[in-house]
Amino acid sequence: MVNAAKVLQDLRASAERKPDVVVRLGKPLIDSGAVLKLDADAWLVYEQVAIAALDMGDDALALKCIQALEIKFPGSPRVRRLQGMQLEALGKLAEAGLIYKAILEEDETNV
Question: Which key words are in the record (predicted)?
């Protein structure tokens, strides 16, 4: 777990996406619950894996991550952005647009 968490942290720090690597390393952390042992970094991993899962077409993993983030951070613009991205991945562009529009109406600098 430590090695996977370190690689994920390094990818975040370098701004590298590498969704295949992120999903391969992050999915076991999330499925086993070990991600929660990462304390504050757990939520960064959930977000990172959600985006990677969307890139890879793993809708179930993305949903699992986004739901965990929703519970921890209800109403957060970052979580709502992920929800919009998920809707886009599902081809629900109009619904995604409504989410993005609402986020911008609340804070026009949140882009």
Answer: Endoplasmic reticulum, Membrane, TPR repeat
Give the whole-angstrom CA distance, residue 53 versus residue 22. Answer: 8
Q: How far apart are CA 44 and CA 64, in angstroms?
A: 14
Q: What confidence score (pLDDT) does residue 110 get?
A: 73
Compute the average pLDDT of residues 50-69. 97
Question: Residue 111 pLDDT more than 70?
Answer: no
Q: What percent of the chain has pLDDT over 70?
A: 97
Note the Cα 76 to chain centre separation in Å.
13
Tell me if 27 sits within 8 A of 20, measured CB to CB: no
Please tell me the distance from the alpha carbon of residue 82 to that of residue 14, in angstroms, as a whole number.
21
How far apart CA 50 and CA 72 sit, in angstroms, is 15
Can you tell me the distance from the alpha carbon of 78 to that of 69, in angstroms, rounded to the nearest whole number? 9
Tokens of 65: 């991550």
